[in-house]
Amino acid sequence: MKTVHTRNAAAPAGHYAQAVGHNGTLYISGQLPVSPDGSHNVSASFAEQAQMALDNLLAILHASGSTPTDLIKVTVYVTTIAHWAAFDRLYAAALGEHRPARAVVPVPELHHGYLIEIEALARYLA
After folding, report:
1. What 3-state DSSP class applies to 2?
2. What CA–CA distance (Å, rounded) separates 50 from 55?
3. CB-based contact 28:120 (threshold 8 Å)
4. Which family does it belong to (predicted)?
5. How confident is the model at residue 109, as a pLDDT?
6. Model pTM?
7. 14, 65, 103, 110 - which has most CB atoms within 10 Å?
8. 2-4 and 19-22: which strand pairing?
9. What digits encode the pLDDT tens for the residues 36-51?
10. Pairing of strands 116-123, 2-4
11. Dmax over Cα atoms in the chain, in whole Å?
12. 82-100 burial by CB neighbour count: b if 16+ within 10 A, else e?
């Protein structure tokens, strides 16, 4: 097993790694819309929060030596399913033609009061 860490994404706030690579799979921990410097902006719009969470996810993916086309499965937690369409637009722009398996799960609340959290599985080539 190999842990992955990058300063280009928010550092873990608890006892976990940003990602762990094992047997060809990269397990990316849930990414909240926290800035890489650790600052929080809970009052940001959903679109801004979603973009930050995606940016964190992609930074970790790149730090592992993988690319967005290596994503296998993405799970997205949102505080209301009303955000689905806005997220889908940002997600499509970030991934282009690549379409990994995905679930968008409405939840009652997320840590710090954020509106979105994203976790993923990807092919790990390192």
Report:
1. strand
2. 8
3. yes
4. Belongs to the RutC family.
5. 96
6. 0.95
7. 110
8. antiparallel
9. 999 999 999 999 999 9
10. unpaired
11. 39
12. ebeeebeebbeeebeeeeb
